[in-house]
């Protein structure tokens, strides 16, 4: 299976420009699964809820249409982060799309910093979805700091967990190595890069998108340039939970002792 | 509070030599809490259960006496790993000792590799104990790979989690940074160093003992030499679970979504 990510710097509020950039980066790329950053179509630094309401879309909105067409054209699945509007609620969401339509939908549960003022914390369960026979779980950015989130997906059979992100702190890439290792799964971190300056606020995003194998090996980690990377993996490896011949780390979990 | 670790290469089966080495390393050292490696008194590579039965001790055995005397002499607390014999059962255990006696007792729950053939998996709960008003949790070596273990201790209020270890793989030191970060606690990894060659078996231990702060900063990490290191920390920092002013990562856990 060929899996990869697009790392780029979205232009705030300029959806068409961001669509163009993604389409251009995918030109000549062949892959089964591509992960885009969190809020790839709008950028990150919303100054208030009104601005977010303006740019957010229902999950079957025009960003959905753009990605769906791209999936059909490229014959691949794409995970993308976007601001979701649903009955007046605003979520920091991600969708796993294939040529056939939406396969998976997730709303970020662990919001970061001032996101609490404009987004609602997600209400959908951590669920795995299947593409080409491979089980995939979705988390978004700051979710990475909660081991329970990815553990829940891994216990449900996820072989790959994707993490669209807009990272401003430097901890996540190394922490994702631990997440892969402790769950024996592949992880794809698709971060954005570049700066955003809006009003009095300014953020620098770190890039460092990466793919990690179930044994903790960093298969690829980039710096902070715009790029698309695709590698070939065998997702079946993620079904084997043995660290040593005598350590199936899932079977040896001690649920009798955890959390009480 | 002054906390530290001793990293050294125990001589297999030679308890008195190992006692001497620890006492010598602690000479001129002043600390509140010192952590010794896993199985510090016996070494690691037991060839069979009979050999382990011979060297294991009840928790109030002579190693306990040695450490208790050392705690009185140095006016400090010491965590040490040892092979425990209790009613015919053998555990890979650790004790937190002070000048007043035993404060904490833990039996490794997640055994590694061939340990499964000679030790029994621990049956005691993950419990925090208190020394000088600071809450301390104990795990041993491979327990590190299970986020649930340290999370359970942190949710019970642990400000410091100590990890006596005999590491042969290289993942643990970096994973312990994630553990500190996701729980906002101090972690002390006290690893052994050196080689062990017994029968046809040979192991190299990696050293890399370290202390990590609640914000993920590696306060000290050594290489693979024998040494004792002590640093000053403020354990109160570990009571603050805020990553940002709007992210109390404990209060924002989503127990409604984890593990189901």
Automatic annotation (TrEMBL), chains A, B:
<keyword id="KW-0808">Transferase</keyword>
<dbReference type="GO" id="GO:0016811">
    <property type="term" value="F:hydrolase activity, acting on carbon-nitrogen (but not peptide) bonds, in linear amides"/>
</dbReference>
<dbReference type="InterPro" id="IPR003010">
    <property type="entry name" value="C-N_Hydrolase"/>
</dbReference>
<dbReference type="Pfam" id="PF00795">
    <property type="entry name" value="CN_hydrolase"/>
</dbReference>
<dbReference type="GO" id="GO:0016746">
    <property type="term" value="F:acyltransferase activity"/>
</dbReference>
<keyword id="KW-0012">Acyltransferase</keyword>
<protein>
    <submittedName>
        <fullName>Acyltransferase</fullName>
    </submittedName>
</protein>
<dbReference type="InterPro" id="IPR050345">
    <property type="entry name" value="Aliph_Amidase/BUP"/>
</dbReference>
<keyword id="KW-0378">Hydrolase</keyword>
<dbReference type="InterPro" id="IPR036526">
    <property type="entry name" value="C-N_Hydrolase_sf"/>
</dbReference>
<feature type="domain" description="CN hydrolase">
    <location>
        <begin position="1"/>
        <end position="235"/>
    </location>
</feature>
């Amino acid at each position: 299976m060929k899996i990869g990510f697009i790392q780029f710097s979205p232009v705030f509020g300029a959806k068409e420009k961001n669509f163009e950039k993604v389409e251009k980066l995918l030109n000549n790329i062949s892959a089964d699964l591509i992960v885009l950053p969190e809020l790839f179509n709008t950028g990150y630094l919303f100054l208030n809820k009104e601005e977010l309401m303006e740019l957010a879309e229902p999950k079957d909105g025009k960003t959905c249409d753009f990605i769906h067409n791209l999936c059909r054209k490229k014959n691949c699945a794409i995970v993308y982060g976007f601001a979701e509007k649903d009955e007046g609620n605003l979520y920091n969401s991600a969708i796993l799309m294939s040529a056939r339509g939406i396969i998976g939908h997730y709303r970020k549960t662990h919001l970061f910093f001032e996101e609490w003022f404009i987004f609602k914390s997600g209400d959908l369960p951590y669920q795995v979805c299947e593409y080409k026979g491979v089980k995939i779980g979705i988390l978004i950015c700051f979710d990475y700091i909660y081991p329970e989130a990815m553990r829940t997906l891994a216990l449900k059979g996820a072989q790959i967990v994707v993490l669209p992100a807009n990272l401003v702190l430097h901890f996540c890439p190394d922490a994702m190595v631990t997440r892969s290792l402790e769950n024996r799964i592949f992880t794809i971190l698709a971060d954005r890069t570049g700066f955003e300056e809006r009003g009095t606020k300014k953020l620098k995003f770190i890039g460092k998108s990466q793919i990690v194998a179930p044994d903790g090996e960093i298969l690829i980690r980039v710096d902070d340039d715009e790029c698309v990377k695709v590698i070939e993996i065998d997702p079946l490896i993620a079904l084997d939970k043995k660290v040593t011949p005598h350590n199936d780390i899932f079977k040896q979990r001690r649920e009798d002792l955890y959390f009480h």
